[in-house]
Design brief:
Distance between the termini: 28 Å
Number of domains: 2
CATH topology of the largest domain: TIM Barrel
Structural class: mainly alpha
Order of helices and strands: HHHEEEHHEHHH
Shape: globular
Number of helices: 8
Radius of gyration: 18 Å
Strand content: 5-15%
Length: about 220
């Protein structure tokens, strides 16, 4: 099963356009065309590579958390290096109780992406560990699964996603304590719950995909412990 997960790099054309609109040099139409050209090129690359599922590359996402935290109405926090790479993300500011989220922008796959489609979201474990918070991180992990990630999965599946990829380099990089496994299992159980879409649309396979992800998830992490 081959697919491209995560955020695909933006072209120089898109970078120039987004900088240009920030400085008042170009309009929103130029930015929209640049993103559309990038998406069309990315779809061609996936087709040429023979991918089994197609992604929109999350080209408009600044980082893997941002649209989800913006849906909560919270501001991004400190700029942090993404592991040992030359890329960065803004810590999600998740102090206090989670707000009721609005529907996050960009979760639903772009309509121009061929089917079958894949959507990438942060895992609840990584989300809770990357956040700047004063809360118990395991409690936050379960709350994020229930209040943020599950609605995002439902929105993506309704829009045609047939595979959900949970991004989690955090677990492999930092490991996981034994006492954190049960809360993680509880969080993933929320995400694995059956989506109420008709079987004829292909959504019935979604929980099985997440079960396979969980088995691989735990096996890899236990090896690193």
């Amino acid at each position: 099963m081959a697919y491209q997960h995560g955020i695909y790099p933006r072209s120089e054309q898109v970078v120039a356009a987004t900088r240009g609109i920030d400085r008042g040099r170009v309009g929103s139409d130029a930015v929209g065309r640049a993103f559309a050209d990038d998406l069309a090129a990315f779809v061609r690359v996936q087709k040429d590579a023979g991918m089994d599922f197609f992604s929109d590359g999350l080209l408009k996402w600044q980082d893997i958390f941002r649209p989800l935290t913006e849906a909560l109405g919270v501001k991004p926090h400190t700029l942090v290096r993404w592991f040992d790479t030359n890329t960065f993300f803004r810590e999600p500011e998740l102090s206090g109780r989670l707000a009721t989220p609005s529907r996050p922008d960009g979760v639903a796959p772009d309509a121009s992406v061929p089917r079958p489609r894949v959507t990438t979201l942060p895992s609840p474990y990584m989300f809770s560990r990357a956040a700047h918070t004063d809360q118990d991180r395991n409690g936050l992990m379960v709350a994020l699964a229930e209040q943020v990630l599950r609605p995002a999965i439902d929105a993506a599946v309704t829009a045609g996603a047939e595979l959900i990829h949970l991004e989690d380099p955090w677990l492999g990089y930092s490991g996981i304590a034994r006492e954190d496994w049960t809360p993680l299992a509880d969080a993933l159980k929320i995400l694995r719950a059956q989506h109420p879409a008709p079987r004829s649309q292909g959504h019935a396979g979604l929980p099985c995909v997440l079960r396979r992800r969980w088995a691989a998830y735990r096996s890899a992490a236990e090896t690193s412990c």
